[in-house]
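Task card 7
Instruction: Convert sequence to structure tokens.
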Amino acid sequence: MESETILAKQFYSNNDAVINESSLNSSLFGTKNKSSKAIVERPSSGFGLMVLIGTFILMLAGAFFVYQFQPDFEQFQIDRVNSSWGLPFLIITGILFFFQAGVFLYNSYLYLRYKAIPSVSDEELPTITVIVPAYNEGKLVWDTLMSLAASDFPAHKLEILAVDDGSKDDTWYWMQEAKKKLGDRLSIYQQEKNQGKRHALYRGFNLGTGEIFVTVDSDSIVKKDTLRNLVSPFVTNEKCGAVAGNVHVLNNKTAILPKMLNVSFVMSFEFQRSAESMLGSVLCTPGALAAYRSTAVFACLPEWINQTFMGQPSDIGEDRAMTNMILKQGQHVLFQRNAVVLTNVPEEYTGLYKMFIRWSRSNVRENLAMAKYVFTDFRKESKFGPRLLFANQFFKIVMTYPFLLFMLFFIAIHPLLFLSSTFLGILILSSFSALFYAKRYSVSESFWAYTYSIFYTFSLFWIAPYAIATANKKGWLTRGLVVAK
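Output:
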């Protein structure tokens, strides 16, 4: 019990709590969790400081050696241009560089114009059905359901459904405990066997009665005003078919990887999705928190549940697929920065790379699906936004293997030049992410942007090429992992 209270105090003091501290023991964290010790264990602050110091030593050393090796860099460039493949590659990379720079500047302009839509009044709020699919989440599903029940949303307009997708642990027990506490406010269902998250959501969609469907992962916590902020755009914009929530990392105090991912998530959501929202074309509504107009869901539900890739049923990327199909209907997909959800992320390398593989495979699949409609007359108003976003994704995928081959060639020919230029590049390019996070949240935590870039560059660079080569493979990948709950 003591460890749960520590976690609760830490979470709610840092993240503008859903319920006040005095009610923790009697409500959200009122039942003992035998594995809670694993959650509250933190890495040594001294170790974290050593990692950050090491990060800056590497980057500054890179800058120093780039200066020292300047003649070698010049000779390498001359040799590359004079080779049969060097000049064409240089021209292509130059074009892509200016394209990416242009996209970044345009996104920055859109971000500066972005404003989250304020919450509408209780009378204007639509009826909603919140669907929580769960598989082997244990007591985390209780925490999720309690945070939803504590939302500042009219009770008579809020329906909560939880679907146990054939869990093998005590997930169903915790759903039943939540049902005892919440009564008619919560409906729980159990799949006879594990069929996958898509099928659990499908059952929820068919059972739900709300005008808006909200999906929340069963290891996530919503803030008190999250639901009302999330669904308000449907009231103010009749063309809105879906809304993406703002995902932060819940366990960002427990390990080094979540610390890094927390900075990365803020950049991905609060910068990138803000820009996409201004174009009405957010490419992915995250599974952790998303909302869909029910009519838009039912318009594509048969296609979505029966989706296949290379002849096999799709069992991943259900969130990206639903977003894609709603965009194809000509509807807008927006982002609400003020609708915050905190979700658990992997704390070990194995879980992280498997999660990224799943996301990357889904990205490849849905970009191929998007290619079939994005250049058609799928939307009455301007289609420039979704086409630009598609082109940006497309070029990244197409150039994955050429850049991988160039990187391997660079390493083989001039390993010191590669290392020094890479560290200098990280110092320069990651500074934007660090400054963005520092301005929005915390200066001290922003330095993890540099560490994450080094970590990703040297240990996860293989994800994209591997995902492209294995895009047809099925499997959730992370479901078999043992995760502390």
